[in-house]
Amino acid sequence: MIPTQIFINADGTPYKPGEGIDVEFIFYSAKDTQKHVFTAHQGGLTEEQMRAILADMGAGE
């Protein structure tokens, strides 16, 4: 099993990582429109990486 995290903003838009996020993401698009649907990460994340992503997403504001 490989841990997989899916990142979608609270307003339902796909998460787009900011400049300071040093994590490799996979960007999924709809086959018919090629529109960005959601962002994922496969594998483990450290607590610091997860906190940085959540802060970048606006959590805790």
List the helices and strands and how they pair.
Blueprint: E1 4-7, E2 26-29, E3 36-42, H1 47-56
Antiparallel strand pairs: 1-3, 2-3
- Catalogue the unreliable spans: none
Straight-line N-to-C gap: 33 Å
Q: Would you list the SSEs in sequence order as H and E?
A: EEEH
Nearest-integer average pLDDT: 93
% residues in beta strands: 15-25%
Strand order of the largest sheet: 1-3-2
Helix-strand category: alpha+beta
Q: Nearest-angstrom radius of gyration?
A: 12 Å
What is the domain total for the residues? 1
Strand count: 3
Count of alpha and pi helical runs: 1
**Overall 3D geometry?**
globular
Sketch the major β-sheet.
Answer: 3 strands, antiparallel
What does it look like?
By secondary structure, the chain is of the alpha+beta class. The chain has one domain. It has one helix and three strands; from the N terminus they run βββα. It has one helix at 47-56, and strands at 4-7, 26-29, 36-42. A three-stranded antiparallel sheet has the order 1-3-2, with no helix packed on it. The longest helix has 10 residues, at 47-56. The model has no long low-confidence stretch (mean pLDDT 93).
